[in-house]
Amino acid sequence: MAPPPSASMPLTQRLMALAQTLQFGWFAGHLTLIFCTLRYGLSYLTFNFYSRWARFSYRTAFVAAAATYGIVVYKAYRARARAGSRQPGGALALAGDENVQYLVMAIVWLFSRQMPLALLPFTVYSIFHVATYTRANLIPTFQPPQAVPSTGASPGGRPMTKSSPLADTIGRFVKQYYDLSMTVVAGLEILLLFRIFFSALIFTKGSWILLGVYIIFFRARVSQSSFVQGVVGQIVARGDALVANQSTPPVVRQIWHTVKGLVSQAADATDINRYVGSQQPGMKKAQ
Questions:
Q1: At what angle do helices 52-83 and 22-45 cross, to 10 degrees?
Q2: Could you report the per-residue pLDDT of 20-58, keeping only the tens digit for each?
Q3: How far apart are alpha carbons 10 and 174 in whole angstroms?
Q4: Minimal CB count within 10 Å: which of 8, 126, 130, 178?
């Protein structure tokens, strides 16, 4: 993330310099997504799912999501172009970039039937991105760090500065709740898989195509996210414990082991790391 504008500049110039960066557009996109989700949530709670404002908020949220992840993908491409390097692993490695995956899913959700649950993983990510940007860029722009008088030199010979208490509070919030929130996102993405599968079972229009696309996306998440792996592991362990119970009918136990074996074989056959290698430099954390 780019540093905030120089503290020697007037506030107006600092704000102008900040607003002219792609990173600010990225921040604005995440902030828009949060506000649109809140507005859609209000319509959802009042059972106005398909009102004009609800439809506008839902679609705008995914436009904002596509814009934010598009900015990250573009910046990564531009950085490689300037360095004269190519994407390691080619198209498969590009598909393994988490930002590309979320960009594709944002576009898919934008043109699919409304599914409120799909907004939540994006919103959780946006909350942390907005918090991080506010701490690292917005607060230092409005309130530049103040030099602290010191009798000794700071490490590296740099002058010691005092950060904003608000920035420190945001930093503690991000550090304390990040892992828990990513686990929640993993759970939401698994729940969303079952939600789409249920829609496919009742033959909702376009649900089978959506299910196929989402399975590909989710397979990549399982491969790359330790949080998704952890939640999936917990679900499998819970299933093993249930079928191990003496009261479980043998046919149910056999079905469970058969399904688990088939899923495991499919997961091994579709592991993208087998084709592009383990976590390539081109694979970026979702931003």
A1: 160
A2: 889 999 999 999 999 999 999 999 999 888 899 999 999
A3: 30
A4: 8
Q: What is each CA distance from 48 to 42, 55, 88, in whole angstroms? A: 8, 10, 47
146: helix, strand or coil: strand
Let me know the angle formed at the C-alpha of 67 by 62 and 69, rounded to the nearest 5 degrees.
95
Instruction: Please tell me the number of Cα atoms within 13 Å of 7 on its side-chain side.
Output: 8
The encoded tokens of residue 50 equal 């398909």
Cα(270)–Cα(183) distance, integer angstroms: 23
Residue 205 CA to residue 30 CA, distance in Å, equals 30
The residues, ordered by sequence, that sit 6+ positions from 134 with a Cβ below 8 Å of its Cβ are: 170
**Which residues are within 8 A (CB) of 105 and not within 5 positions of it... i.e. 6 or more apart?**
213, 214, 217
Query: pTM of the entire structure?
Result: 0.84
